[in-house]
Structures are given as C-alpha cells and as structure tokens.
Amino acid sequence: MLNQRLDGRLAVVTGASKGLGKQMAESLAEAGATVALVARSGDLLESVCAGIVSRGGKAFAFVADVSVEPQVAALAADIRRRAGVPDVLINNAGINIRRPLHEYTLEEWRKVMSTNLDGPFLCARAFVPGMIEKKFGRIISISSTMGHVSLPQRAAYSSSKFAVLGMTKALALELAPYNITANAISPGPFATEIARVVMDDPVQLADFNRRIPLGRWGKVEEIGALAVYLSSEASGFITGTDIVIDGGWTAQ
Predict the structure, then answer these.
(1) What SS3 string covers 187-202?
(2) How many angstroms separate the Cα of 250 from the Cα of each of 4, 71, 169, 212?
C-alpha cells in the first residue's frame, strides 16, 4: 500500500487560525506531520497550536500576513530556523468581499487579489528553493468552485481563484523535474467563517442548498483528508490538476 502517513514531514499551512486551514493543519498533524501554522491572528493561531500539541501533535505558530512581501521573507527564515525546511505548502489564506463590480473600489479589488493570489505566489517563491534542495515537495493551493463557475457579486473572488488554477498548472510544469507536485483544491459550500454571510441569509442558504446534488454542505474533515492525501507520497503522480470537492455543484 502506498504511504499516506506524513511522519518526518514539515507542512506550512497559511490561514491556519480557523476554518478549512485549521482543519487541514489538524489533519496533517494527526497524520504525523509537524505543522507550521501561519495567520494574521496570533491569539487564534496559538489556540490552534495548543490544541494540536495537546493531542500529541507537533506544531509551531507564526504570525504573518502572506500578502506582504517582507513578512513572507521573514516568515520563511523563521520557519527554517525554528522548524526546518518545509516539505509541504498549503496556500489556504483567502478573503472575499461580496458586492457588485461597479461598487468595488480599486483598493478593495487589490485587497482580494493580494491575499488570494499574491499570497500563494509569495509563499511558493519563498519555500520552493528548499523543496528543490530536498528533491521533494507538495504545493497545494486552495481555489474554489468560484474558480470554475461564479455567482453575482463574486467578480474579484472568482478572478483570484481562476488565477490560482493557472498558477498551479505552471508551477507543476516548472517543478516536476525536482519531484515537486503542485495541485489545487476547489471546495464548494463548507460551513466555515467565510461562508457565514450565506449561512445567515435564509434566501441565499436555500438557493445554495438547491444547487448541491448530494443535498448537504461539505464536512471540514473531508477537506482535511484530501489535503493529507495530496501531501503524501501516495499522490506522487498527481500534479498540475485541481480536485473539486463540492457535492456535485459544478457537475451541473
């Protein structure tokens, strides 16, 4: 059987203080990885870190904004100093500002792009050299069903997530000679903080529920299991692709 354990691996997870990032970090730790948790919120991050350690896992907390170039450079140096050279990078940090395009300010547009697209670029650029040294690496970037289809008031978010898919394909081709894979995960509806605006609106919630063929929202543990698989040696022949986990939403 191909190995799906992550013992001895170091994984960086951005946006790890809550939601899907928190769950993926916890799942990787349960599979044996040491996890470098990255987020802007220090208090939430320390809580996640303490939880992993209390269950026998290994984790470090690093406060940084992945959209800010100097902070990412300092983050990479700090992780190497405290934990080692990462084997896995999960680009999960993301934001969404919902409003009609003609009401968007350029500042708001750039804020979405800087977190959702510049962040994965800066982190990949920072951590790829160490993976090349190791001749092993797994880069997983979180896109979205909104990177395949869209909805009203999602112009910036969809644009950023479509772009993540393009970057993933290019990285896969560039890094294949070094035994480094690059893949994306496109989640559909999951009950996380970023989806709160939908969950709290009965009309939007009913519309979302009608669109899901499996008739339910995703469980965060399902994303965690997928992240573990894509981080492991068992996924070594998968690169340059995107795995949609949406209950059938985009199959329609």
Answers:
(1) ECCECCHHHHHHHCCH
(2) 28, 36, 20, 9
CA-CA distance, 18 to 195, in Å (whole number)?
A: 12
Q: Are 189 and 249 in contact (CB under 8 A)?
A: yes
CATH number, domain containing residue 223: 3.40.50.720
Count of structural domains, the chain: 1
Q: What is the pLDDT along the chain (252 residues), one digit of tens a residue?
A: 678 999 999 999 999 999 999 999 999 999 999 999 999 999 999 999 999 999 999 999 999 999 999 999 999 999 999 999 999 999 999 999 999 999 999 999 999 999 999 999 999 999 999 999 999 999 999 999 999 999 999 999 999 999 999 999 999 999 999 999 999 999 999 887 766 777 787 887 788 888 899 988 899 999 999 999 999 999 999 999 999 999 999 999
Question: CA nearest 160: which of 90, 108, 200?
Answer: 108
| Residue 252 forms part of a structural domain | no
Q: What single-letter amino acid sits at 212?
A: I
| Strands 180-187 and 88-91, sheet pairing | unpaired
| Annotation says 104 is catalytic | no
The DSSP result for 98-126, as a single string, is: -S-GGG--HHHHHHHHIIIIIHHHHHHHH
Range of the domain at 48: 10-246
β-bridge mates for residue 89, sequence order: 12, 139
Q: Closest Cα to residue 34, out of 42, 26, 45? A: 26
pTM over 0.90? The answer is: yes
Q: 251 lies in a domain?
A: no
- Rg, the chain, Cα only: 17
